Structures are given as C-alpha cells and as structure tokens.
Amino acid sequence: MSQRTLVLLKPDAVRRGLVGEIIGRIERKAGWAIVALELRTLGSATLEQHYGEHRDKPFYKPLVEFMSSGPTVALVVEGERVIEGMRALAGPTDPIAAASGSIRGDFGTIVRENLIHASDSEASADREIKLFFPGLR
C-alpha cells in the first residue's frame, strides 16, 4: 500500500552538511520517491502547530528554539510502507540507542538535535503534509 510521509531534515543536518547524504539514502530505497521538497526556516506559527501536542512538556521550548535556529529541509516521500520504513531509516531519537546504518545511528550526537523527523502514523503524516505542503495533491 503506497503512503506518503513528511520528513524534516532539521537545522543540525543542514548545518553539518548532511542533507545530500540523507536524501541519497531516501532516494536509494527501492520504490520510494520524493514528491515535494523545500528549504525553509520555520517560524513560530508553524512550529506551534507541528509540535502543539508537546506544549506542556519540558523539552518543548528548547525544541522550538532549536527548530527555528536555522534552515530545515521539508520533504514528502511516497512509497510502499514509507511511514514505517522512514521511521526505521531514521532510527530511535536517542542516537546511542540507534542502530548503525540508521541516520541517527550513523550521524546523531545528542537527543535534542537528532537530524530528522519522520511522521509516526498515517494520521500524523496527513496533518503534517497539509501543514508544510498545503497545495500538494
């Protein structure tokens, strides 16, 4: 079953020059295609909508500060089981727990600056894609 997911290459990935490497890994997955891509610096309105469910958590303010600290690459990836697959390719949030071969396992350094976001469900993917790419059909 073909799906779409939102992927964000966070400011640390951009700052460290890892965008090409990460996009290359996505492009090399058989059957997956990038259907939208944009470089942007995220503002507070977008971040409040994207991370709103975490508003009352202690990591919310540092996360929003980090995510607005520089450019982010937003992309939509389409393919078979792409939501589950992108989460596996990204690896767990904690880079120490992430397996070698995953993006966070190979390049991650700390939990808060963890290189990549990938939607965690079809409902999240639908909501996030509409937020970042409202005109995408």
Provide an overview of this structure.
The chain has 7 helices and 4 strands, in the order E-H-H-E-H-H-E-H-H-E-H. The protein has 137 residues and is of the alpha+beta class. It has a single domain, classed as Alpha-Beta Plaits, CATH 3.30.70.141. The mean pLDDT is 95.
The name CATH uses for the topology is Alpha-Beta Plaits
Can you name the CATH architecture?
Answer: 2-Layer Sandwich
Annotation, overall tally of beta strands = 4
Sheet with the most strands: spatial strand order: 2-3-1-4
Provide the domain count: 1
- The first-level CATH class name: Alpha Beta
> What can be said about the biggest beta sheet?
4 strands, antiparallel
Produce the secondary structure layout.
Layout: E1 2-9, H1 11-15, H2 19-27, E2 33-40, H3 44-50, H4 60-67, E3 72-80, H5 82-90, H6 103-107, E4 116-118, H7 122-132
Antiparallel strand pairs: 1-3, 1-4, 2-3
Gist?
Helix content is 39%, strand content 20%.
Structural descriptors:
4 strands; alpha+beta; single chain; 4-stranded antiparallel sheet; 137 residues; globular; Alpha-Beta Plaits
